[in-house]
Amino acid sequence: MKALVFHGPGKSSWDEVPDPALKDAGDVVVRVDAVTICGTDLHILKGDVPEVAPGTVLGHEAVGEVVEAGSGVHAVRPGDRVLISCISACGRCRFCREARYGQCLGGGGWVLGHLIDGTQAEYVRVPHADLSVHPLPGGVSGQDAVLLADIFPTAYEVGVLNGRVGPGDTVAVVGAGPIGLAAITTAQLFTPGRVIAVDLSPARLDAARQFGADAVVNAAEDPARLIEDLTDGAGADVAIEAVGVPESFELCTRTVRAGGHVANIGVHGKPAVLHLEDLWIKDVTITTGLVDTFSTPTLLRMIATGRLPTGPLVTHTFSLDQMEEAYEVFSAADSGALKVVLERSAA
Fold it and tell me: Could you tell me which of 58, 60, 38, 89 has the C-alpha nearest to residue 292?
């Protein structure tokens, strides 16, 4: 089969590799029908995630059809159409019993495209399938469903829920890429008073307005002043970091109000300064986290009933064999790409 293989920082290629096979009774092999590229994949290619070994197939988000299932799999069977979660869960360890699947000690957590071969391929082996793949409702398209593999549960759990967004809150979302836009969308489930989006890209700020931001500001134009003005000097109740660079995290800590919450989502490859000389007295809560995907079944029900708009996030579509071109478009600052989806050819 063909797959996108990581060969070290800055190097990847669409290569011929062996087909995956079942290794454990809880595994399934899935034919990939739709897959997407994540900002985390770009972080891997930059060298920000050194645990990824050269030779690893990248990708951790996909929709497809089960073609083979191990003897210990009970939730799905060959022929089922499924969403592959970015997080695998053994279901037995201490953290899985607390629904902290991202911290799984039993061979799960974020493993696909990280510690084992991932989803940017024609076929993929998924471990711990009973808790790591989700049968898809009949009316949900692969292009919509694949956005629930990672970005929507990540934005919802690590951003909105960790940040404790509540009715009437002022929410500042720093970074209007796919994760930030998903955070803007899911924050509205809690009827905040105002959502402010911050980004350097005018196109992404336009998208933020489309997804429900009440105010937008270019990161180069003193967003801290705007947030201060809009909150009568108090600051944001919740500041969500959705970029993964020191400047965006430090902006969140500068603009959050006393007693507020900073929810860090971004994948950081460099140290950020924590200004405790300013924060120690402010009763600020800072949360970090890897998504657990406990919310995926809820989000699937919402998308099946039309309660969760996802479609506008997909700006570019490709066939699987255009993987390298899709990476170029997704990573280009001037492409206007939000989320790209690659689909298996009908032929």
Answer: 89
